[in-house]
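Morning. Coffee machine broken again, so started the prediction first thing and wrote up yesterday's gels while waiting. Chain of 234 residues, entered below exactly as on the submission form.
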Amino acid sequence: ELRQTVSLVYDLVILGGSSPDWSIRKLFGLGLAGHCPLASTSTIYIDITSNQTGQTFRLSPLPDRTVVSHRGGHQTELAVYNVQNLDPDSMFNIALVHDKPRIFTQNIAPAIFANRYIVGYGQEFGGIVTKVHNRHWQPITIVFLENIPWFVPVYFHTLKIVSQGRTITPLVKRYVPGRERQRPYYLEIMVELPARSVTDISVQFDYVFLKWQEYPPDANHGFYIGSAVITAWL
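Came back before lunch.
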């Protein structure tokens, strides 16, 4: 027995603008030219369960039949097309058209948002960089709170806050060193973000040699470090 499985993910907003309608020709560039002559069965299944609870749609052409599948306590309704019954001399296409137009909206970034990443290389030194974006038209004061695990010892003297190439001095800062296998590192600073700016908050750390029982089950996957907390009065 030979089985072929293809999993594809499409962004309907990019593919078709504001319309969620789709078809085989729209997704793959052409229709179906018959079935495989060596296959004993050739069937297309389309999940139409959401047609009963969400925005209604219709299939063109209509399916040969519909079946209901019960698995794991869930009920799924499927539209079935038998490809062997199609005309082998013509291209076959299945289209899904919604009864009412659906408009996709684009998410607008908030006034303040952040992302972070790790810098450095090797297994000795590294750094954590947090980019804080201020999209507001005036400066905003934030409180940046960080709890870093004990196995990632950070150095407070390496703390740098840079915005648009200019070094910023924090208004308030508090640092509690961590203790190996007892408590994490605590870092809290208050800083004023310039208007319409991107501010980099970076600190360097070392890697600690752990005991073999202290590694996570999948050591090659690495460690997870909790995110920082940013508080602002908007």
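The helical segments are 12-16, 24-28. Going to sketch it on the whiteboard this afternoon.
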